[in-house]
Amino acid sequence: MMWLWLAGVIALASPLSPAAEERFAAAVEAEASGQWAQAAAHYGVLVALDGSHEAAILGLGRALEAQGDTATALRTYERLGSNPKGVEARAFLLESSDPLRSAELYRLQQSLQLGDAWPYLGEARALKRVDPAGAAAAIDGYLDLVQGAPKGSVILDVIGELRAANEDQLAERLMRRVLTGWPATDWVDEVQARLDRLQIERAARDFTVAEQTPLAPAERALLQSARRMAASKRDDEAIAALSELVRSVPSNPEPWGALGKIHRSRGDHAEAEVAFIRAISAAPNAAEWHANLGDLLVDSYGGKRDREARDAYRTALSLRPTWTEVAYRVAEMERGLRDYDAAVQSYRTVVAMDPSGDWGRKAQQRIQQLGRKAPEISGDVEPNRGVEGVSAEAAEHFRLARAYRAEEQFTSAIAEVKRAVELAPEWTGALNLMAALEVANGDRAAGRRVWEASLRINPEQPGVLVALGELASFEGDTAAAFAAYTSASEAGSVEALYRLAEVANHNGQTNEARAYLTRFFEQTAGGPQHPPAVALSATLEHQHQRKQLALGSALLGLGIIVAVLVWRRNRRKTLQQLLQRVPGAAHDVGLVVSAVRHELLKHNTSLLNEMAAALEEGDDAAVVYGAERLFGGPGKESVTSRYDAYLAQLLMVGRRHGMHLDLRHGDPVFGPISRSMAALYRIRRKLRVPPANATERMGLAGTVSAISHALNVDAYQELGTLLSVLSTCELSADLIARVDRRVRSEPGFATERLPKLEQSMPDGTVVSASRGDLEDVLTNLLRNALQALVEDGSNGDARIGLRVEHRTDAITGLLRADVAVLDSAKGHLSSTMIGEADVGRGLGLVRDLVERNGGTVRVVSEPGWSKAVVVELERVEGGVVA
Amino acid sequence: MRVLIVEDGYEYSETMGRYLGAEVEFGRAGDGVDALAMLSASSWNVIFMDMRFDRAQRLLGDDGAIRERFGGDTVRVRRFLERHQGAYIADAIRAAGHQTPILFSYDFGRESTRWAHLVGRLGHVAYIHDTAGPADVRCALTELCNEQ
Q1: What is the CA radius of gyration of chain A?
Q2: Per residue in A422-443, pLDDT tens?
Q3: CB–CB of B79 and A115 under 8 A?
Q4: Which of the ends of chain B has fewer CB neighbours closer than 10 A, N or C?
Q5: What residue in A sits closest to B16 (Cα-Cα)?
Q6: Within A214-323, where are the H helices?
Q7: Contact assignment for A877 to B15 by CB distance below 8 Å
């Protein structure tokens, strides 16, 4: 029994064991369906068995967090040490409760993931309340690195906090940077409005006398008179009187405030805003004008300036902390801005201020609506996507429904989404949410009906078809499930292929299941990251092997089994065969090969010689230290398991191109490395606790030395040679002539009279680029130049040339090759255009390919030519590029 | 022998500290700025220089010329500087007037032209091959130090 139990545990503990994969798939599924306790249990088992299982640790942390156990979640994430994902999870978890520690963790993440913009945004989010200037610095870091349009909400919050902290210069600099750098983002209007307001306030401050001037009796009488005029709808007269008054006593807030109120009632928002700001400038510590400004911003800008309004209310409340109505408005604004944690806190403040009054009752209701824990709405909700005319009210009900669902309060969620559907009956997004909620609440029939209704409105919804398939599958109706998944697959769902594989496997159709799964892996780059699919693949492979073996033994006995095994082995391919068949795979393969060579061999196994010497000399501490480096401790991956992971990546590269690679046994490069890694793994325990017996030690030293030679000398050289093949190419006259011939034979040029390619290049130009990429780059550049000449209608003066020049980088000593394609056609092309996203004529591809190989592209003017497109690539002397 | 290790991580410092014995005194600089400061503050017999610095926050060499070369793409500029930061730091060390010998942890074995260029520019330098173990490093450091 003990042996059986042990075997089970070992099977489960192995990262590749089907049992562990199955449990992981179950954990992922439980988490996806919001069954947190179940997910935590599954992840917990995996973590207990393998303390370094990153995905399981993160999943366990998430599941604990979702159940409100933040302390244990934090301890769980801490198991990952300085793993970037673990650091990010801890930072996110601590944002509210310990912002300074959170910011510190985000800074660590910035170091761990250099070049990634998100950690800077996280740091800003953590610091915005406690250190607005620090948050602004983090935003700068974010803006330096962000690709595409930056996310606005945090930036706007930081601007608001800077203003509240009187850091106007920092706020202005940040706003100007956003306005200059990203003028087309959808939240830039709000930035512009805030900048305008800052400038108005500044102008007002400059204009206003520092000391507030009291009104003389005659002026106060005029103010009262103006107020009466306004009350009796004589607005023009009131404005005239107040305008006179503000001219004579500009530093008194009351006429400005009265003027602002009249403008606001007439709908003159801009004038009202200026007047309120002037009132605030005259009396910055008077809560009333801040609150008035908040009301104006809320009512007049349709939500676009709600953050500013919230800030104005917060200022008003800080100046008059007993003002319950404003406290309630702060809470309402926070709720509207989806800052639910803050909103609940603010509502609680209102309840404490007015426990038995109207405001307190309203606040209490809001707290109940939002639930004990603040619901979170994911930022990607686009409630009116694809549907015209979805009202704000419907969208609000939709958001609330999602928030309730996140809290697993399905009845409330269904009630909210039904209101959304009543208001927008054609809105498929709401219908789909309603269906999912019905199913989650146990009414599968209702869910199916609603999904079917959604499909009648828009049949092109592969996700809904997959959901219907899942429902049918759950109910045991595999035929209906199969039909739904097939439709989903036809509608473009890649996920449906995995589901089809599941159904086929369930029906015992192993070959069909494998075929679906192969299609799934071919069609999605994320396939290898899909744990259930990987698990199913392993199961199918296992079943397939068993079938083959059973069939062989039943029919022809042992001889046939051997034949089958040989056939299977031969059917698998080497890396070299993959590269011959799919040259485009060179780049992906090169990345992995380079990582194995640099990370595993150079930085780890190079210690082996030293360990062998230490064994011979009896220096146990040195051996144990080396073993720690190679095999790690708790939470640290060993060099052999990292090698396994790299091999798995190569297998996936092969699989994406429809080839089964045999790297461990049949591959001339990776076979020997795999054997050495396996040998290293076998002696790991002896290295951790070196034997006391001298003969045994010497034997172990010899083994370590042999492994060291195999890895650090033989394998290192082999991988270097492979890298050389993968990532370098000779730019020869033959290659250029071949590309030139190929381009000229294209249909667009075949009948044209085109000038001969003028060439000038030194011998021996080997560049750091794969052959396929280099040929594609030259093809596109020559095609562009020829096309330009054809369009230009140039006559006998037309010229096209290719020139290669060698250069040396002064500081690094790197050798470079400038490959210039020149032509005489008119037409404008610049380096800036090359860098633009929509550059046409294949130049975008050229740019991408060149950059992928570490080079640059620019356009220069050239005497005697119209233009030259110059591709700069690294030049390689002897072969290997590290 | 006092050796200043310039590396963005702690791998070399830890390994050498463990294997090279008590006769060598080590200091560590995490980037070029620290290295220049440590060279100004104290005397070192030899510098052990890593080449790739992808974990350092501060990188030397981020000037207008390199930004122009990469079309203003700061991400690519950073990637390039990370990959060759050792050369930039070495250049800055010489520019600051320090003639301390430098041992590069980078295999220039197949790049003889490049290496000749760097020797011409940096003077007293050497390199170790990629899979050199601590004993090889000790030997190379001693040799470089004795050549002074």
Answers
A1: 35
A2: 888 888 878 888 888 887 777 8
A3: yes
A4: C
A5: A607
A6: 217-231, 235-248, 253-266, 269-282, 287-300, 306-319
A7: no
Other Cβ atoms closer than 10 A to A253: 24
Distance, in Å, from the CA atom of A718 to the CA atom of A704, rounded to the nearest integer, reads: 20
Distance (Å, rounded) from C-alpha A340 to C-alpha A345? 8
Contacts with A601 from chain B: Cβ below 8 Å: 130-131
Structure confidence by residue, pLDDT tens digits, A449-487: 988 888 888 887 777 888 888 778 777 788 888 888 888
Beta bridge partners of A730: A766
d(CA A193, CA A308): 9
Q: Which residue has the tokens 């933040």?
A: A70
- Judged against a pLDDT cut of 80, whether residue A834 lies above it is answered with no
Distance separating alpha carbons of residues A222 and A106, to the nearest angstrom: 58
Helix (H, G, I), strand (E, B) or coil at B46: strand
HEC profile of A512-535:
HHHHHHHHHHHHCCCHHHCHHHHH
| Closest C-alpha to A642, from A624, A630, A625, A633 | A630
Q: Do B55 and A111 touch (CB under 8 A)?
A: yes
Residue B139 has a CB neighbour count (10 Å cut-off) of 12
Instruction: Report the alpha-carbon angle A529-A533-A542, nearest 5.
Output: 125
> Token pair of A854, please?
């570490």
User: What is the torsional sign of CA A57, A59, A61, A63?
Assistant: negative
What ipTM was estimated for this complex? 0.94
Element (H, E) at A650: helix A639-656
The residue to which tokens 């003066």 are assigned: A797
- Counting other chains too, the contacts that A545-553 makes at CB distance below 8 Å and 24 or more residues apart are A547/A510
* Structure tokens, A362: 């309203």
Distance of CA A14 to the CA centre of its chain: 30
The sign one gets for the Cα dihedral A54, A60, A64, A65 is positive
Rounded to whole angstroms, the Cα distance separating A652 from A646 reads 10
- DSSP per-residue codes, A442-502: T-HHHHHHHHHHHHHH-S--HHHHHHHHHHHHHTT-HHHHHHHHHHHHHTT-SHHHHHHHH
